[in-house]
Design goal:
The chain has helices spanning 12-16, 39-52, 96-109, 119-122, 139-143, 155-159, 168-180, 196-210, 214-223, 235-238, 270-273, 279-293, 303-309, 372-389, and strands spanning 56-63, 66-74, 89-91, 231-232, 246-247, 255-256, 275-278, 324-325, 330-334, 337-345, 350-356, 361-367. The protein is α+β, with helices and mostly antiparallel strands. It has a single domain, classed as DD-peptidase/beta-lactamase superfamily (Beta-lactamase, 3-Layer(aba) Sandwich). Helix 3 (96-109) packs parallel to helix 8 (196-210) and helix 3 (96-109) packs across helix 9 (214-223). The chain starts with 11 loop residues before the first helix and ends in a 10-residue tail after the last helix. Pfam families: Beta-lactamase. Keywords: Signal.
């Protein structure tokens, strides 16, 4: 059960902080130490770690066909001597949403689902009990945060949940049935409201039609084809030598969070935000989207599918100055280029990524701390790396 102190994954306010090729994926990930000199990146990371007093920070910089930098500095756990490695795994929080959306896009391409599929079409018995307002809500709207579902980003919402069965797949199906029988938070399709519940329901729909759990589909259909070693939950809970998250509570100083303590997200919140992986592995996922945005066919799906995911379904606010949201990506203009970005946090790690197709560039920054200073560090580092590597702008392919 999620404890009261959770400030879950990525609230709408954190989303708003985001603003401020080759036809096939390479078969191997180069050793970060074998990459060309990245002294500038090392300097930026070290400066940020010292300025913002964070245990460790790591970054990945990629073109569509190469990794330019994969670096890390600091320690895996504050108070312990083990240095962090560029191949260590970091928790990605809500940056998982783009991965869940990508997995579902694969199911849409192969005809297992369509973007217009509704829950009543896939869940037996739900057609008669679903709230009338949700009858026409589509898979696409769940992923674009326009479904009408409540956010599930605060402890009050968690406390209202009834107990569910332990099996992850069955639990997500039960959760979907539960929330779709309740009153919507707003008229579905009328506006944007960031919702972790939407991604949990979308994953449950994918599981229902495929007969396979989200975790298994992620491993077999996304991680394996991209040669990614991704996992679920806190990295140090899976491997104690991996980075620990750090957080503050009630004004306390930053301290390590026990990865085996009671603060765990659990199966419901895997699809919206509970994946961990190394920066080189995350870079490969970003390259998949970068290639597609540049008009290049990928090994997983057509470039047109990628571009559709990065097409805004509408603004994130009534204000025209606020960026739009696609399927797992914030779509906005940043540093003079059209960009797709996202940020993620569950209070113990921070992750931030941006793709700029016109510059053939993608950057991600992560840290094993979840406080405000860590968030600021990722914002500043992402900006510095995009400026460092994005000097030349080119017209990306339109085919």
């Amino acid at each position: 059960m999620v404890p009261p102190f959770v400030r879950f994954i990525l609230t709408a306010s954190l989303v708003l902080l985001i603003v401020g090729g080759c036809a096939q994926e390479p078969s191997t990930v180069p050793d970060p130490e074998e990459l060309p000199s990245t002294s500038v990146v090392d300097s930026l990371l070290n400066d940020a770690r010292e300025t913002y007093d964070i245990p460790a920070v790591a970054a990945i910089v990629v073109r569509s066909d190469s990794i330019l930098a994969a670096r890390a500095t600091g320690v895996r756990r504050r108070g312990a001597p083990d240095p962090v490695s560029a191949r260590d795994a970091f928790h990605l929080g809500s940056n998982t949403k783009a991965m869940t959306a990508t997995l579902i896009a694969l199911l849409v391409e192969d005809g297992t689902l369509s973007w217009d599929t509704t829950p009543a079409e896939v869940f037996p018995g739900l057609a008669d009990s679903i709230h009338p307002a949700f009858r026409g809500v589509t898979l696409e709207q769940f992923l674009a945060h326009r479904s009408g579902l409540q956010p599930f980003t605060n402890t009050r919402e968690y406390g209202e949940l009834p107990p569910f069965v332990d099996d992850p797949k069955e639990r997500r199906a039960a959760f979907a049935t539960y929330v779709l029988q309740r009153d919507p938070s707003y008229e579905p399709g009328s506006r944007f409201l960031y919702s972790n519940a939407g991604y949990a329901v979308a994953a449950a729909m994918a599981e229902q039609v495929s007969g396979t759990s989200w975790e298994q589909m992620m491993r077999e259909r996304l991680f394996k084809p991209l040669n990614i070693s991704g996992g679920f939950g806190w990295p140090a809970a899976v491997d104690s030598t991996q980075p620990w998250g750090h957080r503050t509570r009630g004004g306390d100083s930053l301290r390590a969070h026990d990865p085996n303590g009671r603060f765990r997200l659990g199966p419901l919140w895997g699809p919206p935000g509970d994946v961990h992986m190394s920066m080189p592995d995350y870079g490969r996922f970003l390259q998949l989207h970068l290639r597609g945005l540049r008009g290049n066919k990928t090994t997983l799906f057509a470039a047109s599918t990628v571009r559709d995911m990065h097409t805004s379904r509408g603004a994130m606010s009534d204000s025209t100055d606020i960026p739009g949201y696609g399927l797992g990506w914030v779509v906005h203009d940043y540093l003079g280029a059209r960009s797709s970005s996202h940020a993620g946090s569950v209070g113990t790690f921070k992750a931030r990524a941006t793709i700029q197709a016109s510059r053939d560039l993608a950057v991600a920054v992560v840290t094993n701390a979840g406080h405000e200073d860590a968030d600021e560090a990722t914002i500043e580092l992402r900006k510095a790396l995009l400026e460092q590597y994005g000097e030349k702008t080119e017209e990306h392919a339109t085919k």
